[in-house]
Amino acid sequence: MNFSPDTDIPDLSGKVIIVTGGSSGLGKESVLQLAKHDPAVIYLTARTKARGETAIEEILQAVPKAKGKIRFLELDLGSLASVKMAAESFLEQSERLDILMNNAGLMASPPGLTVDGYEVQFGSNYLGPALFTKLPLPILAKTANLPESDVRIINLSSELFKQAPKGGILLSECKTPLLNISSVARYGQSKLADYYHTRSLSQRYQEITFVAIHPGVVNTGLLDDLKKRRPWLGGLIGVVGRLVLTDVHNGARGQLWASSTDRQSIKNGAFYGNKLREYKDTVLDDEKLMRKLWDWTEEELKRWE
Question: Is 275 considered catalytic here?
Answer without folding.
Answer: no
